[in-house]
Amino acid sequence: MSTRNTLICTVGTSLLETNIARLPNVPFELPEIWESLKQAFERSQWQQLAQLLLEISPTHRVCGAEINTIEGAVKREWIRLQNLILLVSDTERGRQTGEVLKHYFRARRDLNLQNVEYDVIESLQDANPKGFRIHGLRNLVRRIGHFVQRFGREHVAIDATGGYKAQIAVAVIIGQAMDIPVFYKHERFSEIIDFPPLPVSFDWDVLAENADLLALFERGKAFSSEEIREVDERLRVLLTEEEVDGQTLYELSPIGQIYMESFRIRHPRPPQLVPAGNRQPPRLGEHHYPVGLEQFMRQVQDENNWVSRTYTLPYDRQASIKAVGFRVQQIGEERLLVGTYRDHTGFGARFAVRLTDESAVALTWAADYLNRRYAS
Predict the structure, then answer these.
(1) How far is the C-alpha of 175 from the C-alpha of 168, rounded, in Å?
(2) Which CATH entry fits the domain spanning 4-195: 3.30.40.230, 3.40.50.300, 3.40.50.10770, 3.40.50.2300?
(3) What is the structure's pLDDT at 189?
(4) Are 177 and 197 in contact (CB under 8 A)?
């Protein structure tokens, strides 16, 4: 296993709520300074509380699962910890826990950490179960994906010890999907345990062929069963279903978000997607086209130098075009990146986007990238 220097840690609130708030009525040996800890907590003196925790062994249970686990992690040969990212819940107690841990680890001179920060995961709170399930867990996936991209997948490990059970489960799945080491420590365990890698693989054709729809889902759009009655059956595993007023509404699930982020982490810009030479202007046929189509095709070419040319495609099911988007389609003998465009009147058209690399990965990457940049 390669050496890792960045630890992404899911954080719960047990340090404050279960351990310190309940002193001295706790199921473990009391630290000598327990009264000072309790007093700092009751006065909301978070930096002072962190300073007091520094006087206690980081393996003591009063320090909480996060400190206990990180202490065990830094003893691993494959971790040379430099960056610590703490992912906290969108609650007052979550922020308070983040403050305590931030001050604590920044003051741990023995660890010599270069960067310690905590990140509040929007909607990750239990006051709104639906918001937690749909938005909170998806936001958790997004933020982990952000930090994995920022520090590099080969440098990251995940500590999935703290937080809601669903939060821990999602963190474990992310690690498995992205081939990132994940470990965990129960408060009664004497040591941390590793989750062994699983033979997880995804079919990226589902993303390629549904990239425009997935982009809309990722932006928070929900569709009724009537609106997506012809949806790719392979896509349904990435969605959640909920009955509302007699209709089934579909939204992107946390697993769907993991699927999207996994592709982006595993497949950054394909190296063969190089600037095009002898680029051609957009070519339109003789039909009547939506207002602004040619300008949009030109914009896509001008702003992405790996697009060699664009041209309109024959009219087919124009009424089904709902928005600006991109997906990979089989057109005759070719597998092409196809863009859709719709003007203010609802009139739509399709056009081909030709790339300097049209391998399966490059087409999928371009569809996802262009959707994130232009889809509406």
Answers:
(1) 11
(2) 3.40.50.10770
(3) 59
(4) no
pLDDT at 367: 98
User: Looking at residue 197, what is its pLDDT?
Assistant: 64
pLDDT of residue 321: 74
* pLDDT recorded at residue 28: 93
Give the pairing of strands 156-159 and 4-10.
Answer: parallel
Every domain of the chain and the residues it spans: 4-195, 205-266+282-374
**What pLDDT, on a 0 to 100 scale, did the predictor assign at position 198?**
66
- Report yes or no: 368 and 211 within 8 Å, Cβ to Cβ: yes
Which residues of the chain register pLDDT less than 50?
none
- pLDDT at res. 314: 84
| Contact (CB, 8 A) for 259 and 319 | no
pTM across the whole model = 0.85
